[in-house]
Design a protein that fits this description.
The protein has 210 residues and is α/β, with parallel strands linked by helices. It is built from nine helices and eight strands. The structure holds adenosine-5'-diphosphate and zinc ion. Adenosine-5'-diphosphate (ADP) binds next to helix 2 and helix 3.
Length: 210
């Protein structure tokens, strides 16, 4: 099954991607994680992407479409995949169609903007492996230390409150139109994000089964 997860920053796409990944045994492709890794490694496109990411803007379509194309061509994607954070613009969705990538379902995780602002302020990410945590909802066992790899967890630069407002604005302007795009193709299912992650996960699994 080829799936897209759609939703505002902080709606919990990454967490739900993990749930689907475990249930269906298909890999998650997170363009955000790939871009952050590129920034950390100082690759050419990492350098280009960094300024946009820090400002809460989108990285240019050329760059993300390029990295997505390379990733999706790898063997582990043959049996299906979950796209987390791609597409984020109508041209990116059109690029998938042009590449001939079949999409079975698009799951939108819907969460109100106010809730998102609260959530992102508590989010922490691991400097080492990129795992994501939350000081209230998904704390690390030892404060400030990643459960998975033992590296330090930090606040992502783009999770600063002022940047979050910009990211939400970008989402509504550039990404939300994709709901229409995929609704017209009959592929959109919406899941209401719940307070409890486990509750949202149940709804997500139901949405992809149904
Ligand atoms: P979130 O969903 O929490 O905003 P991501 O980790 O998916 O976080 O993305 C972080 C940043 O990486 C985005 O704000 C954007 O700058 C960049 N990015 C990720 N995916 C894309 C994409 N498909 N198109 C453009 N920019 C992207
Ligand atoms: Zn880690």
């Amino acid at each position: 099954m080829n799936l897209i997860l759609l939703g505002a920053p902080g709606a919990g796409k990454g967490t739900q991607a993990e749930v689907i990944c475990n249930a269906l045994k298909i890999p998650t492709i997170s363009t955000g994680n790939m871009l952050r890794a590129a920034v950390k490694d100082g690759t050419e496109y990492g350098l280009k992407a960094k300024a946009a990411m820090d400002a809460g803007d989108l990285v240019s379509d050329d760059i993300v479409i390029g990295i997505l194309k390379d990733r999706i061509a790898q063997d582990d994607c043959k049996g299906g995949f979950i796209l987390d954070g791609f597409p984020r613009t109508v041209p990116q969705a059109e690029a998938l169609d042009t590449m001939g990538v079949r999409i079975d379902k698009v799951v939108e995780i819907h969460v109100a903007d106010e809730t998102i602002q609260r959530r992102l302020s508590g989010r922490r990410v691991c400097e080492g492996c990129g795992n994501s945590y939350h000081i209230d909802f998904k704390p690390t066992k030892v404060e400030g230390i990643c459960d998975a790899c033992g590296a330090k967890t930090v606040i992502r630069k783009d999770d600063e409150p002022a940047t979050v407002i910009d990211r939400l604005k970008t989402y509504h302007e550039k990404t939300a139109p994709l709901k229409d795009y995929y609704a017209k193709q009959g592929k959109l299912v919406t899941v209401e994000g719940q307070e409890e992650v486990a509750e949202t996960s149940k709804l997500t699994l139901k949405a992809i089964e149904g």
